[in-house]
Design brief:
By secondary structure, the chain is mostly helical. 69% of the residues lie in helices and 0% in strands. The protein contains ten helices and no strands. Helix 8 runs antiparallel to helix 9 and helix 9 runs antiparallel to helix 10. The relative contact order is 0.10.
């Protein structure tokens, strides 16, 4: 998957993203801007039953805003960073996430770090990236969750990538890898039938990829999709 990192003018560079202390309400919004699942939000905030219900209502409202398509590609918060800082951070975090994915000896703490760096990269690309950058960010989030054996969020992000591809007319190997992400996520979730269906779609998409090297890279990745057993 090394070439994936070079697509979209990814280059070297690093900027550390720091977040100031904020109140619970603002922090919830920030976390959802990073598209963290509800269980992660509750864990990070250490919420009890009452605050958790408030979080659920808030997240429900935010999810409906996203589903309605309002400001889907627009910046959601004013972080004080300019476009170049967002871009550099998105690149560095995407690449670092991939380094963690390739580390077969990751610790539990590194698994948690990997989730956060993938979401942080996606957040920065939401501010300044083209639709194809958003697709690749959602793809990476899906891959992270698949590697961690978490089918539900893996499917959620793969489907988001699929919606963007369909809305923006994005095809070629990006679409093929979105189908790969769906096949992998369904396999992790234990749904053999759906996994096989999307794997077929991915192979069909691979046949239409223009560049031979891109096609071979996609086909090689499809060989690593698990068999869908739980």
């Amino acid at each position: 998957m090394a070439k994936w990192l070079s697509i979209g003018q990814f280059d070297n560079g690093y900027r550390r993203y720091m977040q100031d202390q904020v109140g619970d309400g603002r922090l919830v919004r920030r976390l959802r801007d990073l598209e963290l699942p509800l269980d992660e939000v509750k864990r990070l905030l250490g919420c009890g039953a009452g605050p958790a219900l408030r979080l659920q209502r808030l997240l429900h409202d935010l999810d409906h805003m996203v589903a309605d398509g309002r400001n889907a590609m627009a910046p959601r918060t004013d972080t004080g960073l300019d476009a170049e800082q967002h871009r550099v951070a998105g690149i560095a975090l995407f690449n670092y996430t991939w380094t963690l994915l390739e580390n077969e000896g990751r610790t539990g703490d590194q698994d948690v770090e990997m989730v956060h760096t993938a979401h942080a990269s996606a957040y920065h690309w939401m501010q300044v990236g083209a639709p194809v950058n958003r697709v690749r960010s959602e793809w990476q989030c899906s891959r992270v969750y698949s590697v961690l054996g978490r089918g539900e969020p893996a499917l959620w992000h793969a489907r988001k990538a699929q919606v963007i591809c369909e809305r923006e007319g994005i095809g070629d190997w990006d679409l093929g890898f979105v189908y790969e992400a769906l096949a992998r996520a369904y396999a992790v979730a234990g749904d053999r039938q759906e996994s096989a269906r999307w794997l077929d779609q991915a192979h069909n998409a691979a046949a239409a990829v223009a560049e031979d090297d891109d096609r071979e890279l996609l086909l090689a990745d499809l060989e690593t999709v698990p068999n869908g057993s739980s």
